[in-house]
Amino acid sequence: MKRGAIITVASIxxxxxxxxxxxxxxxxxxxxxxxxxxxxxxEAAVISRIQDIRTAQQAYKQKYQRYTPTFDSLIYFxxxxxxxxxxxxxxxxxxxxxxxxxxxxxxxxxxxxxxxxRKQMTRNDVENLRYIPYGEGAEYIMDAGTFxxxxxxxxxxxxxxxxxxxxxxxxxxxxLINYIDDAKTLGKYPGIKVGALDQATNDAGNWE
Length: 208
What we know:
The protein is an alpha+beta fold and about 210 residues long.
């Protein structure tokens, strides 16, 4: 092969290598950025649903003075149960009106699904409360119980959580490992979580 041909081939190979190296470098730089962008979208969906779970649990506690540990009972409650409300006419601070029987109170019932959520929820929305968005059928881990505070007061508690692996598992493996390690290093649960079984948290979420 002539020298000119060799130089031409070498130039082509070098050009290809430069293109490949550039492509790999861009990919390396974009991987963390793309990972964080997707994490933001998915976490928002997971948080939105876990907030609905919290709302349903708080309504359940309002009626039964405890939380429920199972999605079956929670979903049944939202779809089939009702909450009682009170409607009054007149003022109880008006002693004359009270004496004359002009102050009345009336109880009425509203289906849970129609009253507790800030958005309209369909039956299908409620039935899907157990499932983690982007989780390919994975369910939130939920439990309930009681906790005794330092002042010896026993309070009902519950927790619901979605591990990062459940809804980020199909993303870049090394980025996910780093993300989980960062959470553990900070002493945080490696996922989205609301409430706790070992302390009274007022049903706070770890994203709040």
